[in-house]
Amino acid sequence: MIRVVLPAHLRRLAKIEGEVQLEVVGKVTQGRVLDALEARHPMLQGTIRDHATHKRRPFIRFFACERDLSHEPLDAPLPDAVTNGSEPFLIVGAMAGG
Questions:
Q1: Does the global pTM surpass 0.85?
Q2: What is the pLDDT of residues 65-96, one digit of tens each?
Q3: Domains of the chain, CATH where assigned
């Protein structure tokens, strides 16, 4: 099981309490995790990545194992600690300001 932690506003939108556990078949990548997340919670489609391009939305970041994976290709494998469920895949709402 892949553990996914969402920011509060996306948990509220999807009516999720706590982290999400997803089954991902085959190679575990950011893209496949996001596909599984959006399949289970269709109301999240378009909130994390663009509907047409599937690129990450601005101000959304991806982290795992204390690493920023936001600029990694969507088909790059996630760390083993994420694939075996010992570490979560974090989707974070980035903040900006001055």
A1: yes
A2: 999 999 999 999 999 999 999 999 999 987 77
A3: 2-93 (3.10.20.30)
